[in-house]
Amino acid sequence: MRAISIKHPGSAEVLEEINVPVPVPQKGELLIKVHTAAVNRTDIMRRENQELQPPYPILGVEVAGEVIENASGRSEFSKGTRVYGLVNLGGYAEYAVMPADRAILLPESVDYIAAAGIAEVFLTAYQTLYWLGNLQKEETVLIHAGASGVGTSAIQLAKQLSQAKVIVTAGSEEKLAFCKELGADEGINYKTQDFAKEIQRITEGQGVDVILDFVGASYWEKNLASIAVDGRWILIGLLSGTIVEKVDISLLLQKRIQLIGTLLTPRSDEYKANLTQEFMREVDPYFESNKVRPIIDRTFPFEKAKEAQEYMEANKNIGKIILTISE
After folding, report:
1. DSSP 8-state class, residue 218
2. Could you tell me the domains of the chain?
3. Where is the Enoyl reductase (ER) domain (predicted)?
4. Cα separation of 210 and 258, whole Å?
5. CA 45, 85, 13: angle at the middle one, nearest 5?
6. Phi first, then psi: what are they for 39, rounded to 5°?
7. Which residue from 321, 275, 24 is spatially nearest to 128, judged by alpha carbons?
């Protein structure tokens, strides 16, 4: 089968198409014929990881497709069943194995392109808002990178599940307008506005209860100024770097701030399975009623994986980028 791996760690230029055997599902797994796969930041981080050693992996952690072989013993996953979800790498390929307890049944009303845009961003958004951020009804949440895949998912979940007041940051008026269409109450252009000052104005000096931070180092001081007493600050990305100089930790104590770092991909299979099961119970009804939907920016054919990753690195997308692998 065809698959996408790397020649060595580096830029998008190192991506290469390879031919490898179709994987064999082990007990508890499904073999999926992959129709679509999502491009995620974690794919780029893995591609750039200088500590990787050969043999290099097939990239991709998120797919949608149909069951070809069921080694799980679970009757709901018969051959031909449409599913989507997270895989332990191998998603940029014609076939992939998926743990059955992480597979989500795909309703006929949702196509493969949309389905590939759900699992990673919505599970991440749900985990950060609720498992880690403990977002409560009608609290205020600040979502940085509001037009990203996780950002657009978090806006919808916070508004629909919690009726939260949602404030977002983004780098263009187009992105801010789109976030408001999804339910954001306030939008801040980080290129032209000081978001900490805007948060103080919007919240009348109270600050926000939860921050979803994809940015990292450069937002440290402004996030500290923006968060409320007893606020929960969830760090889920490091787009601006990792080093904060001259850190004054006294505000963490004074405001009783909970600062939590997280990544979903390295979590255990059991953690991901439990998260998936709760997500299906709590959020599936919102998909079925179209109150919540995946946001797809654009698709690229499988052969254009390099261009797809470069497009993401250029920060051009509003929502998800999808690779189409088979019809």
Report:
1. G
2. 2-120+294-324 (3.90.180.10), 133-261 (3.40.50.720)
3. 10-323
4. 10
5. 30
6. -95, 125
7. 275
* CA dihedral of 278, 71, 34, 318, whole degrees rounded to 10: 10
What are the tokens at 77? Answer: 């996953």
Copy the structure tokens of residue 36: 């679509």
Which residues neighbour 55 within 8 Å (Cβ) at sequence distance 6 or greater? none
| HSE of 35, CA atoms in CB hemisphere, 13 A | 20
- Which whole number is the average pLDDT over 41-62? 94
pLDDT of residue 327: 57
Within the chain, residue ranges assigned H as helices are 41-48, 112-115, 119-126, 149-162, 173-182, 195-202, 220-226, 250-254, 269-288, 305-313
80-89 average pLDDT score = 94
pLDDT at residue 240 in the model: 78
**Whole-Å CA distances, 40 to 108, 124, 308, 312:** 25, 12, 10, 8
Query: pLDDT (tens digit, 9 = 90+) per residue, 169-210?
Result: 999 999 999 999 999 999 999 999 999 999 999 999 999 999
Residue 244 has pLDDT above 90, yes or no: no
CA distance 68 to 94: 12
Q: Assign 33 to helix, strand or coil.
A: strand
Give me the residue label for tokens 């998926």: 98
